[in-house]
Amino acid sequence: MKILVLTSGGDAPGMNQTIYQLKKSFKDDLYASLEGFKGLINGKIVKVPDCRKEKNKSGSIIFSSRCPEFATREGFSKALENAKKFDYIIVLGGNGSYKGCKELNENGVKTVFIPSTIDNDVDISEYSQGFDSAVSACEFYIKNSMPSMQAFNRCAIFEVMGRKCDKIAKETFLRVKGDYLIANEENLEYDKISRLILDNHKQHRASSIILRENIVKIEEFKSKLSKLCPEVEIKTIIIGYIQRGIGPTKKELKISKQFARYAIWAIKAGREGTAIVVQNNKVTAI
Ligand code: F6P
């Protein structure tokens, strides 16, 4: 049996652990399409290397990419031609990658999908691997910055990832018990935010604002707030790629192994067009 695995879109902590588990089970039968769907299009396909050393590290040992070419007729047909050389294709990625995987399946390829994105935006699963680690990076960063903000009675705006999705912002806000959350555009209530910052400032309390990326430019946001609260020093912090690069949490590693176990089971049982998901808090195959 020839099995191909690929990681697509933003890499997610836990991906390497899943790949390691797949490799342990399928050994030399496991191949990788390098850089996600791109490798399927240009034929960059190799045997998955021994990845014991990388299993608890983040990133993707088989590389990832965003691949608009896959959505073109020409790109897709090249990808399909290479995909058909394998008995199974395992796709690790987010919502966009899930759609790509489904399309391969609808065109006769046996597929298994594993939700893997820090955004946690795969509709069919309650959880995507990477999310807990990304939020824990934000939590660590913010909790360890606020004592310094407090010493100077400042206000800090922390920008977290989530280009199309507000889940990282919402979960981070809860975990750090932030002062104000801007998860969506309607949360941009400047009067309300400035009143809160000023009230805190009077009591010598630093304010923390959690801002989801892609809502407003952080410097523009700061400059508007600064005009409304001139006496408060406002700092901007973009948390950035530590959210994807941080090592997987314990919870993440547990789920990455479970995802792999279910994928292996699905393939050995001859299931196809399968997605490994979390439903009612449990990993399952649908
Ligand atoms: O992986 C998802 C994500 O982290 C988004 O939240 C973020 O906007 C985006 O990827 C950034 O991706 P890139 O590195 O391709 O700019």
Give a written overview of the molecule.
The chain is α/β, with parallel strands linked by helices and 286 residues long. The chain folds into 2 domains: 166 residues, Rossmann fold (3-Layer(aba) Sandwich), CATH 3.40.50; 113 residues, Rossmann fold, CATH 3.40.50.460. Helix content is 41%, strand content 19%. It has 11 helices and 11 strands. Strands 3-2-1-4-5-10-11 form a 7-stranded mixed sheet, with helices on both faces. Strand 7, helix 8 and strand 8 form a beta-alpha-beta unit. Helix 1 packs parallel to helix 11 and helix 5 packs across helix 7. The two termini are 22 Å apart. The model has no long low-confidence stretch (mean pLDDT 97). The structure holds 6-O-phosphono-beta-D-fructofuranose.
Question: What is the SS-derived class?
Answer: alpha/beta
Taking the sheet with the most strands, its summary is: 7 strands, mixed
Q: Average pLDDT, to the nearest integer? A: 97
What is the approximate shape?
Answer: elongated
- The assigned CATH architecture of the largest domain is 3-Layer(aba) Sandwich
How many structural domains does the protein architecture include? 2
Q: How much of the sequence is in beta strands?
A: 15-25%
Largest sheet strand order: 3-2-1-4-5-10-11
**CATH class term of the largest domain:** Alpha Beta
Order of helices and strands: EHEHEHEHEHHEHEHEHEHHEE
Are any ligands bound, and if so which?
Answer: 6-O-phosphono-beta-D-fructofuranose
Q: Show unreliable segments.
A: none
The tally of beta strands, per DSSP, is 11
What percent of the residues sit in helical stretches (DSSP H or I)? 40-55%
Which fold name is given in CATH as the topology of the largest domain? Answer: Rossmann fold
